[in-house]
Protein: Molybdopterin/thiamine biosynthesis adenylyltransferase
Amino acid sequence: MSNSDQRSMIRDAMQAIAQRKPGKSKLVYDKTKRTIVAVSEGASTPQALNITADDADMFGVVTLSSGWLREKWPYLTKVGSLPVEFSSWDDGDALTQLDLCIQSSGTQVPATLVFGKQQGQPAGGMVISIIETDKPVHRADVFVSPDNIAYRAELIEPHDHTVDRREVVFADIEPQLDLRRAGILETTILKDRTVLCIGLGTGGAHVAVELAKSGVGHFMLVDRDRLSVGNVVRHPGGISQVGRAKVNVTRDLILEKNPNAQVDVRVAEASFGNRDMIAGLVQTADLVICGTDNRQSKLLINEICVSANKPAVYGGAFRRAYGGQILRVRPKESPCQQCFVSALPDAASDVEVSSQDDADVIAYSDRPVAVEPGLSLDVLPIATQLAKLALLELLAGKSSTLNVLKRDFDAPWYLWINRPEPGTQYAEMPPLSESRDEMTINRWYGIYFERDEQCPVCGDFLAGFVAAYGIDPSQLPALREKD
Ligand SMILES: [Zn+2]
Structure:
């Protein structure tokens, strides 16, 4: 029995175990049947070679990209061979084709792909033979060519190589990712949607990555900061990324989850000086997600989005991340960020300060300004809820499984409290287990408040002004001109 047949049998038997077939809990080699079978624990198996579950991981894995191979298929079948490059992980335990890697391991291994059986021992380097097979398709170790023929891959290592037990599998990125979302998310719709994310701190970056996992296809990222060591305890980016612009770190995290996404990055701050650039991006976006934590940038983005008639979702944590809030703005339909600041000034000003830049910018605050600690754990509930609201906006007007949430997520403003922080209005909240009627920690509250009809951004400010001060309406054109 060849090495590769043996691997195949182990794979099949392991699958039987994984499917929890009743009474089968152990693998043995049945010498009469010359195959590996799954039997009940305790069954007597004389003369059998026992294989434990640990043996399933006995082979290293070489992963090839199906998409890449389909693309190169005409060349490979015509010319007969093709160079391929792998990223080597964990001392060669996993070799992943570089075309699949957003970030590589730093150790690269070259190989040659050969169409048909390799004749003799290769002169040097790894050779992977692509050979026709009658194995069923939909297996990880089977590749279906563009002309619909099933192939398997056989790895031939060079003579002097000690690691000889590796199996070759194929990764078909897009269909395999879509399969996990099918029926829940309308991936064909989301693939065409464009999200503009302004502010890629902890919350903003998490939202962007969640949307990528959900299948959103186009991203525009705007942030001026670089990832610092202090960010790492909260941000999805890690120590290896320290010093890089947060937009670039986030782009790579998006591509790790959705390699087919289009990601456009701008290292820029959300300030009035960049108004035209941001307004241009807003024009091409279906939804704007604002994760900046200072009021000026939120109001600027609000003004741009309302005048462009684009929906926007604003998220933020309260100080020391004891809680957080989300405001969803559908221009002219629901209250805007400016309405929110006028209606609930205390709520609007209770923001955490998570970077020194923001600490410097919040000069309007009457409280001491310093970078405040906060836990990733406390920011994530807000980020995941924001991502859900964002998906609902992106699927608006389309039939979707998520539409059942529309009656639950109907309010413009959402509030979440992580702990009864001393010194806040939430300090005396009853314990979670004791209250159903009063507000508690760890529950989402959707809160309704009215749009300001005379809001300077989304309402008719001038009419209100004229009424309030008893100005002669015939003066209105002159006033408008001055404006
Ligand atoms: Zn407004």
In short: Residues 453-483 form one domain. Confidence is low (pLDDT under 50) at residues 362-368.
